[in-house]
Design brief:
It contains 15 helices and 18 strands. It has 557 residues and is α/β, with parallel strands linked by helices. Among the domains are: 225 residues, FAD/NAD(P)-binding domain, CATH 3.50.50.60; 66 residues, no CATH class. The longest helix has 21 residues. The structure holds flavin-adenine dinucleotide. The site of flavin-adenine dinucleotide has 39 residues, from helix 1, strand 2, strand 7, helix 7 and helix 15.
């Protein structure tokens, strides 16, 4: 990969950002003859100084993580640490749902569906099959034998990437491509519009060593993640006082994550009922797991958002669960990264008596706990395709529910520019994440429907305290790592920041790749859909650009 030299780079396509979006896009141009520059604002691996450029302000720290957490400013972006959970958006996500303000896409599900299989391949998540009856030869094991819910689809599944670190997996391939230059430690600080007209002329790049450069290109793509894309557009005020693409004050609004948390107590009481909440493996070794997905017709009838639930182990901090494994993991929390320990039910204090009770749990199951930890090291820490998450079978078939719900659009939930400045003097981002009453209503109604489904079946009971739902869903704040909607797709500049081809309104040659463009958040984790949209964008751009007659010499400036 080249370093920087000279003060001006010329290319046909400049991709700013080298996470899954930027890398998936760049891969589509290998050997096309189109001259591509891919900018990674960071090094090959984690580097504190680059990461510090992500620092910013958070309006309510109880509701949102610090901006240096849950995103990674490096080659590969946040795929350096992602969990790899994959599933496509659902057709209903693209419908014009009149009960959800702002839930409008200018394209249909069928416009993106053809790109999912290839996105799966890039994410190394196996076949594009999301039905438990077909994902595994002979079908996956049932979650709860005999339970046939009316309101939920029990055959919905999620599949897992290795999880693939896009930087490590595809870096060499990009490096070898004759027409692609990858620039590390090249930080975009300003997008410059041409003095006349609507074209973007160049992007200003800075290095932490003090150099400044420009990239001139026919097409530019921002693939810098949902928070940074809004920041860059807003901070590019040299010729557009409100920022680029922000004539209608849309950039940074509708900042969505997901509404997620654990809630309820589910007791499966039917005698001799097998319950399985772990992973089955597809023919190629991909881990697949069932979840309960609220059926689309029920969402329409109840006028709520999209939501899924998974069976989950009991809350870790409460030693009453009696499981040595859960206690060992709880006590190991200080050694687990912020991003992964937070969701192990964080926030609870650890008193001496609590520690003793957890130790007692471990002492009661020393062999099971040790066996589990060894198995974890073998199947998770050392394996190339990692066992995706902690699965511990609770005693007496008593579970909690792990909920992952759509967050509906909200103009007041925003990324703005803050008062602080980064090392380049660029305004830092300020996050004011907010949710709406409908977000909690979706969870409340869905839990009620699942309770009814269990009551009708008669083999299990779901109990929860309705008044505690908001606390349970907000215990860890906005779901980390999913940064959606800040440059949303719309039919017009009044409705969004980019058009149906992900081109920024008011510009002729600036596009956005990444979850910033999603007008709604779905129940689905975003990365597979981010990749699918990057592939779709590549097709649009390829149709417009002609192969260069003078493909540049790699590394030349
Ligand atoms: C702990 C964790 C777990 C996750 N688990 C899952 C999961 O299971 N499933 C899922 O779907 N998603 C998951 N995610 C989210 C997933 O990582 C992101 O959706 C994905 O990485 C987004 O890809 P991206 O390319 O759009 O942005 P990013 O991965 O954020 O990449 C942005 C790129 O832009 C570069 N950049 C930023 N600013 C600049 C600048 N000014 N100039 C130049 N370059 C710049 C960065 O260095 C980086 O290369 C998780 C995230 C985290 C943090």
């Amino acid at each position: 990969m080249s370093g920087l030299g000279g003060s001006r780079l010329n290319s046909q396509l400049c991709i700013v950002g080298a996470g899954p979006a930027g890398i998936a896009l760049a891969l589509q141009f290998i050997n096309t003859g189109i001259d591509v520059v891919l900018l990674a604002g960071g090094a090959l691996d984690h580097d504190e100084k680059s990461q510090a450029l992500y620092a910013g302000e958070v309006a309510d720290e109880a509701l949102h993580s610090p901006l240096t957490e849950y995103r990674h400013r490096q080659f590969g972006g946040s795929s350096a640490t992602w969990g790899g959970r994959c599933m496509p958006f659902d057709p209903i996500d693209f419908e014009n749902r009149d009960w959800i303000e702002g839930a409008r896409w200018p394209i249909a599900y069928d416009d993106i569906a053809p790109f999912y299989p290839e996105a799966q391949a890039l994410a190394e998540a196996g076949d594009c099959i999301y039905d438990a009856r077909q994902a595994v030869e002979g079908g996956m094991r049932p979650m709860i034998a005999g339970f046939e819910p009316e309101f939920f689809n029990p055959d919905a599944i999620e599949r897992f990437s290795c999880p693939t670190n896009f930087g490590r997996r595809y870096g060499e391939k990009l490096r070898r491509a004759p027409n692609i230059r990858v620039l590390l430690n090249a930080h975009a600080t300003q997008i410059m519009r041409a003095e006349h007209g609507n074209a973007i002329e160049h992007i200003v790049l800075r290095t932490l060593e003090g150099a400044e450069f420009q990239v001139h290109a026919d097409r530019f793509v921002l693939a810098t993640g949902g928070i940074e894309t809004a920041r860059l557009l807003l901070a590019s005020r040299a010729r557009d006082p409100q920022g680029i693409g922000n004539a209608q004050d849309q950039v940074g609004r509708n900042y969505l994550c997901h509404i997620a948390g654990t809630a309820g107590t589910l007791s499966v009481t039917a005698p001799a009922t097998p319950v399985f909440h772990g992973y089955d493996r597809a023919w190629d070794g991909v881990y697949c797991r069932r979840r309960l997905a609220l059926r689309p017709e029920v969402q329409r009838e109840k006028r709520i958002g999209n939501i899924v639930m998974r069976l989950h182990h009991p809350r870790l901090p409460d030693p009453a669960h009696g499981r040595g494994i859960l206690s060992a993991i709880y006590l190991a929390k200080p050694f687990i990264s912020y991003e992964y320990s937070k969701r192990l039910h964080g926030g609870d204090g650890l008193s001496a008596s609590l520690v003793l009770r957890h130790l007692a749990n471990i002492a009661c199951e020393p062999f099971a706990t040790a066996g589990f930890l060894l198995n974890w090291a073998r199947r998770r820490t050392l394996a190339a395709r990692k066992f995706p998450s902690l699965i511990v079978t609770p005693r007496n078939n008593v579970f909690s529910l792990d909920i992952h719900a759509e967050q509906v659009p909200n103009l007041q939930s925003r990324i703005m520019l803050g008062e602080g400045r980064d090392a380049f003097g660029m305004p830092q981002a300020r996050v004011d994440w907010r949710y709406r009453a409908l977000d909690m209503e979706t969870v409340r109604v869905a839990l009620g429907l699942l309770k009814d489904d269990f009551a009708r079946w008669g083999g299990g009971q779901l109990s929860y305290d309705e008044a505690e739902i908001p606390d349970a869903m907000l215990r860890d704040g906005a779901y980390g790592g999913h940064h959606i909607g800040t440059a949303r797709m719309g039919a017009s500049p009044e409705e969004g920041v980019v058009d149906s081809e992900a081109r920024v309104f008011g510009t002729t040659n600036l596009h956005v790749a990444g979850s910033a463009i999603f007008p709604t958040s779905s129940q689905a984790n975003p990365t597979l859909t981010i990749i699918a949209f990057a592939l779709r964008l590549a097709r649009h751009i390829k149709a417009d650009l002609q192969p260069s007659t003078k493909v540049s010499i790699k590394g030349a400036a």
